[in-house]
């Protein structure tokens, strides 16, 4: 992978009224963005569990999440609290490392709504058998429906 020398800078005024926040990096400020409904994450450093916790607290009404990060996560997230995304209905994980699929679909790490539109590469999904089994168990318990959109990239 060729790394580009790019610098992202976000300039915004308070109160922040945008409904989207694109190309967020690990340097995301821990401020409250009540109007934001769509977030795209992009970085060359891995997104760890505490980062998702900051996103959930900063943008409590997020509906769509798009990740672009091929770096493997470094930390064991067993000690972190479960993160709740009560309004999240769409997740795009096509351009991510397999760790993020495990992070976002493991109900012991992150709690999602019953009906979530998931976009993921087929190769990433087929390598996550344990997560698929866990999701199947959760679906049986909740008696709900999840739409899986598999995209072959």
Describe this protein's structure.
- With 153 residues, the protein is α/β, with parallel strands linked by helices.
- The chain has one domain.
- It is 24% helix and 24% strand.
- It is built from four helices and eight strands; from the N terminus they run ββαβββαββααβ.
- The protein has helices spanning 49-58, 98-105, 122-126, 129-142; strands at 20-24, 38-42, 64-69, 83-84, 90-96, 110-111, 117-121, 147-151.
- The strands form two sheets. Strands 1-2-3-5-7-8 form a six-stranded parallel β-sheet. A two-stranded parallel sheet has the order 4-6.
Which features does this protein show?
single chain, 153 residues, alpha/beta, six-stranded parallel β-sheet, two-stranded parallel sheet, 8 strands, globular, disordered C terminus
Distance between the termini: 16 Å
Gyration radius over CA: 15 Å
Q: Helix tally?
A: 4
* Percent in helix: 10-25%
- Count of discrete structural domains: 1
Strands of the widest sheet, in order across it, are 1-2-3-5-7-8
Strand residue percentage: 15-25%
Mean pLDDT: 78
| Shape by Cα distribution | globular
């Amino acid at each position: 992978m060729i790394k580009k020398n790019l610098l992202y800078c976000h300039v915004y005024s308070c109160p922040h009224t945008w409904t989207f926040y694109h190309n967020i990096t690990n340097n995301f400020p821990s401020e409250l963005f009540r109007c934001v409904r769509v977030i795209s994450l992009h970085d060359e450093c891995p997104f760890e569990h505490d980062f998702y916790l900051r996103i959930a607290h900063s943008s409590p009404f997020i509906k769509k999440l798009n990740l672009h990060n091929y770096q493997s996560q470094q930390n064991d997230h067993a000690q972190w609290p479960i993160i709740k995304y009560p309004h999240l209905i769409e997740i795009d994980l096509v351009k991510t490392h397999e760790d993020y699929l495990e992070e976002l679909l493991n109900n012991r790490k992150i709690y999602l709504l019953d009906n979530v539109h998931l976009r993921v590469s087929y190769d990433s999904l087929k390598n996550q058998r344990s997560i698929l089994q866990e999701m199947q168990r959760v679906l049986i318990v909740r008696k709900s429906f999840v739409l899986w959109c598999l995209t072959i990239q």
